Amino acid sequence: MTHKKYKNLFLLTALAASMQANAGIELMTDTVAGQDTKVTLGGYAKVDVRHVNGDIAYQDYWIANFPSGVPVDTSHTGFNVKESRVNLKVQHGDISGFVEVDMYGGGGNEVVSNSSNPRLRHFFISYKNWLAGQTWTTFMPLHALPEALDFGGPHVGEVFIRQTQLRYTYGAWQFSIENPETNGNGSIGASSSGVGVTGDQADKDESIPDFVARYDHKADWGQLSVGALVRKVDQGGIDEVAVAANVAGVIKTVGKDDLRFQVTVGESGRYTAAGLTPDIVTDDQGETVVESTTAFTVAYRHFWTDTLRSTAFYGTAETDETNKSRAHWGVNLITNVTPELSVGVELGNYAIEDEGMTDIDSDYLQLSAKYAF
Q: Exposed, middle or buried, 163 (CB in 10 Å: 0-12/13-18/19+)?
């Protein structure tokens, strides 16, 4: 075999290995009880170095909250690996089970051990068109999320929730009933199964699950989805049906470039702009009401080469009753050193422009390295 043939063989082997790595590491393939069975290990290791400077307190990643609740003169550099995660998938014929954890479960400190507790992200069962368990809400358009180093990108403009649900998929349609939770009026979303939590501490209402319907249209030009959320809000002396809608898409532009967007309107509450608002709030007249939120995200990704790309994104959200307004923008440069290893840099800003307070913001600079397996 010539040197050129050896080289071609090496490249094909490397390509096959990278494709397998992107889909996880196959630990076992066998026939068990007459069914093809496969066990796959996946996830990634991510190291972040992040500097935050401005009026808003440091966070490892921005969500739509107001850390500390007051302006804080901040200049802080943090190192962490907590976004890293590990997952395991077991496929047995038509049945599969999937579990994933990351390290954002809290605990530890930065004095000695830098320990972090594992946190459950996903744990679900799939059988043909059915899914049961905890994973991303059906209302969330995963395809519209921008590629960002800040964990999740502009949460402020996104639908972003994981919860237990029962989902049925029929072609381009998805229908689900999902765990109900109304927060506000002192509710903290405590689970009745939590250690030390009694029935009196658990929410006494929430008898009807949340309903989600979604339609995904895929074409050569990209993907477009429309989602609807209907739920019962029954705390704080109110008993109403809340409705929200989401429109999202990915549009292919020039070469490998794409434009991503999502818009959410209505009484989405906890489903949208993580940390921005509870489901129910008190209005100017002292009445308890259901909050309405308008949120959107837009992002453009450009490939400079096959492996070097940049994404510029912007997300924002506003509430009707409490007049909160938050925004997050960022721009990055990411490259693949190998098919599995990527490194990048991101510069961005998180701003708060709530009614009745001076506008404040913080800039951030983040360096990240990520090994996907």
A: middle
Quick one: DSSP state of residue 143? G
Q: What sections of the chain are H helices per DSSP?
A: 3-22
Residues 351 and 360: their CA atoms lie apart, in Å, by: 6
Strand, coil or helix: what is 80?
A: strand
Written as one letter, the residue type at 17 is: A
User: If we measure between CA atoms, which residue out of 115, 84, 20 comes closest to residue 371?
Assistant: 84
Compute the distance between CA of residue 367 and CA of residue 225 in angstroms, rounded to an integer.
32
> From CA 351, how far away is CA 68, in angstroms rounded?
14
Token pair 């925004």 is found at: 327
- Answer whether 77's CB lies under 8 Å from 110's CB: no
DSSP E strands, the chain:
25-32, 35-54, 74-80, 85-92, 95-102, 119-127, 130-136, 162-170, 173-178, 210-219, 222-233, 240-252, 258-266, 280-282, 288-290, 293-303, 308-319, 325-336, 341-352, 360-372
pTM metric for this prediction: 0.88
Of 148, 153, 142, give the one whose Cα is nearest residue 310.
Answer: 148
What pLDDT digit, counting tens, does each position of 113-163 carry?
889 999 999 999 999 999 999 999 999 999 999 999 999 899 999 999 999
* 39-43, 62-66, 232-236: range with lowest mean pLDDT: 232-236
| DSSP codes joined into one string, 173-206 | EEEEEE-----BTTB----TTSTT--TTTS-S--
Nearest residue to 316 (alpha-carbon basis) of 270, 358, 353, 357: 353
Q: Say whether pLDDT at 6 is over 80.
A: no
Give the residue among 42, 141, 15, 171 at the shortest CA–CA distance from 96: 42
Residue whose structure tokens are 């429109």? 247
Q: What is the pLDDT of residue 186?
A: 58
